[in-house]
Amino acid sequence: MLKKLFFYLSGFIFLLGVNMSANATADNQVRASYIQLTAQSGKETDLADFLGVGAQLVSDTEPETLLWSALQSQDKKTLVIFDTFGSQAAQDAHFSGKIPEALSSKAHDLVQGGWNKGVVPNINNADIIAFKTTPDAVSNVKIATFIPLTAKAGQEENLANFLKQGAQIVKDNEPDTLHWFAIHFGQNKFGIVDFFPNQAAVDHHFAGGVAQAMQQHAATLVEGGWENGVVAGIQAFSVIEFIKR
């Protein structure tokens, strides 16, 4: 019965896409999910530990989940799951699998709002419009950042094209930006998720070519411009679990 419920939810929450490839690889990343959870008071460590169990489930049972990460804010209260997939079918399979089943049974105790109010409304699925990944960079992934971006009216395509160019800048100039994803949640909502080995790499990235170009063009492309639309939205996390195929 529970599995049927997840298939039902996926029909309404997740957009239809291409069929799952039998040989999905890190070079074929097309879909992503960004799920933000707020831990119940006093349950921050318990929720983080649960996500460690989730990481093992992904490793053991989900070969088509190309990247799966669990992130935690500095105050420990906010935890994020960010994962990527080679197809819509792979994403749907993930959300009808063992992790949602386990989280639905634990959410009342661990997550503010429980499953229906604390998890489901915070599932944000996206198309991956550009990315960089680094082979074998797993154990040294320590820090992640997320930047939500809202395109100005009529600038959605231009912002998407800018982010595609940004991916190339990162590939060419930032070896210590280990993984970088530009994602489109739909309509005018975009985001950047990236992973680093240390704070020096973070600092280098935010002083680098993509940041400089964004600073020049944000007033045209992004609601709020550079200061209020980009810088004010930057969120930093510790990486507590990381799996990459």
UniProtKB/TrEMBL annotation:
Answer yes or no on keyword Signal.
yes
| Signal peptide per UniProt | 1-24
Q: Which UniProt keywords apply?
A: Signal
What name appears for this protein in its UniProt entry? Answer: Antibiotic biosynthesis monooxygenase
What species is this protein from? Veronia pacifica
